Amino acid sequence: MKLVRWGEPGHEKPGVLDEEQQIRDVSGIVDDWHGQRLSDDSLQRLRSLSLSRLPQVSPGTRLGPCVARPGKIVCVGLNYRDHAHEAGMMALPQEPILFLKVTSAITGPQDPIEIPPGASKVDWEVELGVVIGWHGRYLTQAQVLDHVAGYCVLNDISERAWQIERGGQWDKGKCADTFAPLGPYLVTRDDIIDEQNLALWLEVDGVRRQESNTGEMIFGVAQLVAYISQFMSLQPGDIIATGTPAGVGMGFTPPVYLRPGQTLRLGIDGLGEQYNVTVAAARAGTGV
Q: CB within 8 A of 38, min separation 6: which ones?
């Protein structure tokens, strides 16, 4: 199934795509796509419904982030071989590099991406997102899929100067509002035959910048979920961003960064596409 959230920001309702790829309103059945609503039991009840009998959402309705109120976003750095080399690493990581991204950075898959005041090195990162459906800790790789609700597209927007040049950890450059476009769909795991064989790509102003396959990960999805669960419990709705391939703006000579007025289009096989326009963020108290 492809789960969506539709409506104005802050007022999204849950939906599901039918066989004709039309959004059906399921707000009379579930309150939203979050927490326990992402469990296998909850999703199985939805599969038994006749979607054609549910209200159809008007075409062109805004899509919101495909998961509501996740507890945390756990990100994996330098998890593609070519990106690790692009970043100047002579040796590949021996263990996953983890950092957290705040949930206030989440925005819809077609919403504007804001360039914060003072930002000069805003970059892109197409990533496979893994959405947790059942709580777990200290998991083995064999147990992982029982705890995964599904997969989605995530763009880990990053301000490189704040990430690398301002001291401390990476979080400063990862957490601005709109720095985590999410969706369009949460595709349940039963619809993905092999999460380690998905093409992913990203374009800026129509120019292909990233193109790879999830098979190029250093640490695969099962490894990552099991590994992360050794350090923190995973709760329903949590999101794991599994890393990005080569082709980020920082990796070009000279580097190429985003500025207001540009377009980004990105996608992953079977998980849909995002389309965003970059805009200058309003300064606090000015509205402009």
A: 67, 131, 132, 133, 149, 150, 186, 236, 237
Q: Are 73 and 65 in contact (CB under 8 A)?
A: no
Nearest to 222 by CA among 130, 144, 127: 144
Residue 19: CA atoms inside 13 Å, Cβ hemisphere, count? Answer: 6
Q: Which of 187, 172, 46 is nearest to 116 (CA)?
A: 172
Q: Which carries the bigger pLDDT value, residue 287 or residue 74? A: 74
CA distance linking residue 75 with residue 69, whole number of Å: 17
Taking only the tens place, the pLDDT of each residue in 46-78 is 998 899 999 999 999 999 999 999 999 999 999
User: Per residue in 130-183, pLDDT tens?
Assistant: 999 999 999 999 999 999 999 999 999 999 999 999 998 899 999 999 999 999
- Helix, coil or strand: residue 264: strand
Contact 231, 207 (CB under 8 A): no
